[in-house]
Amino acid sequence: AQALHALIASLGHSHRLGALAQSGAMVVASQWNPFVDPSTCTIGQLTFTVCVYGYALFQASNLISDGSELLLLVPQWAPLVGSVVLPVLGAVPDGMMVLFSGLGANAQQQVTVGVGALAGSTIMLLTLPWFLAMFAGRVNMSPTGVLRYKRPQNAGEDWDKLDPPGNMSLTGTGVGVGSEIKDAAQLMLATTLGYFIIQIPAFRSDEMLKMGDAPDAVKVQAQVKEARTENQWALIGLVLCMVSFGYYLYKMWTDSQDSSGAVDDAIAAATVDALRDGKLTLRGALSKFRESSWCNLKDKKDLQEALVNKTTLDEVRRMCKLLAPFFGHYDLNGDNQIDFEEFRMIFKDVRENLPKESQKQMFDSADTDQSGFISFEEFVACMMNFALDPNTDLKDTKPRFRKDPNTYLSAEEEERGSDADDEDDEDEGCEEEDMPEDLADLEPEEQQRRIKSRAFQKMLLGSALVLIFSDPTVDVLAEIGHRVDISPFYVSFVLAPMASNATELVAAYNYAKKRTIKSMTTSLSSLLGAGVMNNTFCLGIFLALIYCRNLAWEFSAETIAIVGVEVVIGAIVWGRRSLQLMHGVIILALYPISLLVVWFLENKVGID
What we know:
The chain is an all-alpha fold.
């Protein structure tokens, strides 16, 4: 008995020591914690804190996006980056908000912040940027539905796609879209299956609807029972999200191998912008092509054999995409010809500084019919020969240009209604920037090394900021909800996407301003792709929390709102090749309507 008493006493002593040690560790940790405790802040301090954290996450999102886009300038990596890396990293801020909301001690209550971030991000990306893209890219639409993309041959100098300027007609203006929109909408709707897998069993096992004003202890017991029932379905939904996520990335990767696909177009656009801004030189942009076997062909027979190869044709097409904007800027009348002086200006635009005699020799070699003009095809052959010459020296100049390349690349766009003479797309001009000194005179290999270094620095810094600020942001949003006596879901729904998705909003608007079918299709497809990522990547993280932390799925109203918005948008774009501005207004209205739907279902119907 004495020995047992001594043992118990020693265990109690050890327990007290352990508790003291744990308490001491927590005190030390709190002393080194750089973030304020939201529960000790005033409303004003909470407002300021959420602005600071939101700005940090906004900058993190920009850094990740900028770093990823820099990697598009690395030809060897560009297809992988455009098809896989960009979509994944774009969803990382939202995914981390969801993850950290379910890691705390009070996970069942605080995970509502993560649900708000997921729902807010999905619905905001599918509504607000969608409307802004349609507003920026709208053109006149006739009563029969014909869009004003193609410039008539007898059009005057004041002709414009939007007439009168600033036309706001809801039915008389609109945008054209390609068939890719329907495919993207189908994929988005298919990936909502993860919500149904967890939501249908949740409806069957949800006892909270039947409890009314039951005591809290009884509700907690019902919540635990519900969590056990839903646990296995959360695992099934998680597996499905992982499979869907993998399939989506695989599809994006296979699409990136198509030289006429959206990913390849995005890579070309990023490269052209880098040439304009002085981040890259022409020879650096074409560094990958220099490694191609067809660049070292010896005779005409070898060339003919190479040109029947799809890979070779794809590479030539990609080079044409890079060079077309430069040629198009000076081909003002659209006759597919430029003279020697315009040829010299293009050399300045691509940051090449050769003696006039050398430029004249190159021009004469390209001008095979000695007409004093060269066509786009002759220009491409000339510039390819110059850029692929390993003995070429590059010098610094400043850029000036703007012209849509689709005029020279595809007759298909005209058949689909796009504008063959896209002067209006490029009227706004371009600010001149001095080329960064550390890239101005570097060899292509060194340029690529510097670009990779900058890209990884930006991506690592952005990812670090996301990891550092996601958790305290969740705490602050939850505290704000408690202080103002509303669910943290609504606070997170409105505020979280503004920090994590502002980059996508601006990008969709800027791309749509080109006012072509192709740019509008790319802009809206990227938003539908963001919906797919949230339905797979972010929802997968959420279901992993439900399964691993044994949480109850009490987000039926939020699920109905998310799936409802996606179904409505899918129905609007299904089978359409044009959208009126009215459709954009309807889609924009879904954003506030979804909040009202959640409030009504929770407070009037009693759905959790």
